[in-house]
TrEMBL record:
Family: Belongs to the peptidase M20A family.
Name of the protein this chain belongs to: Acetylornithine deacetylase
Top-level taxon of the source organism: Bacteria
Stretches assigned to coiled coil: none
Cofactor: Zn(2+); Co(2+)
Organism: Cytobacillus oceanisediminis
Amino acid sequence: MEKVQKDVIEKVFEQVDALWEEEISYLQKLGRYPSTLGNEAAIQEFLAGSLEKDLNLKVEKIIPDPEKLGAHPGYSKAEWSYDNRPVVVGKYEAKGDKKGKSIIFQGHIDVVSPEPVSKWSFDPWGSEIVGNKMYGRGIADMKSGVTAMIYALKAVQQAGVELANDVTIKTVTEEECTGNGALAAIEAGYRADAALIPEPLGQQALVGQVGVIWIRIKVAGLGAHTERADKAVNAIVKAYKMVEALQEYEKEINSRSKHKVFGDHPHPQNINIGKIHSGDWPSTVPSECTVEARVGFNPGVDPADVKKELQAFLLEAARKDEWLKVNPPEISFYGFHAEGFTLDPDQEFIHTLEEAHRIIENSDLGYGAFTGTTDARFYNLYYNIPSTCYGPTGANLHAPDEWVDLDSVKRVTKTYAAFLLKWCQYNE
């Protein structure tokens, strides 16, 4: 690293240190918005104002339009409205002749439900700090990363450094269920030479992830008063057959040859029975039971093919039961229709991230494959924009007492800042 660059990087790092208490408060503020599905408007309003006032970015709010997005191969079917649920995009436009390359920093602000809250030791919306950890729903996944990407750019600006290429900051909705927020922002024209997503993967780069679909299985019974239970058919009991079939399908897909990106993983393709709803009275035999599940599958496989195969597998299992053979389950799909992807780490974007990582961590950048899905898929699969995830260290994602390691948030903020200087370059 040449002398000037070293001085500039040190000047920017000093700004990260100077802004650190403010950055912690900012993360706490984000964590106190209960931004579950459908409740994202308030946090997005705050973020739009912050990007405009604090970072002087050009800000646009985008409402995803299912009619416009519906034909896109990456679109996932939603069963809810997008009214008053914007995606926020802030753009830093470099002045004069451009050098370096442009970047998108993108984080999601939607979080999963904290229920049952009784299992938490902390208020899930309290952003409480104990020692070096901050606790709260979405604190790790991924409001800490969102905060780090914003403060990395803020530190560069406060240091008086003018970047020589554009930086786009996106705070998106629905990463946890469709990815349609990310898709809407890309389709609105916000693209760049690469995209970095601050998922809490513990300061390693993502080089592959599974595909994901959501399935809904509705099983009919024959309802009655319990007094006639011997002549009735309990939909809950019959739904067990479908739960067992899903578990069999999970064994089946994991027994097939592994994708090489998951070579060391003992069980890369997970099926989760996430929701069961049935009945409304202990003394009534339920007439209907609905099971909803999340299904993972290998990169390179079309989600539509998985849906066809899984539907056939479940209907075949139903045919082995006297009742279900005559009253087959109603199978439908909604939410995630997400392909998996792999990324070649031997490219300039990842090498630049590795250089930035090495400055802070003093070690080589590690690579990992993820048995979940992230919004990085859109860039890699459909737009030829290399995208990886790299973010802070946390734990208990989607579980009680989710936390993030605050030291790691600070280090990641510095890594992002160093990355900006190297990737976008800057004007002397």
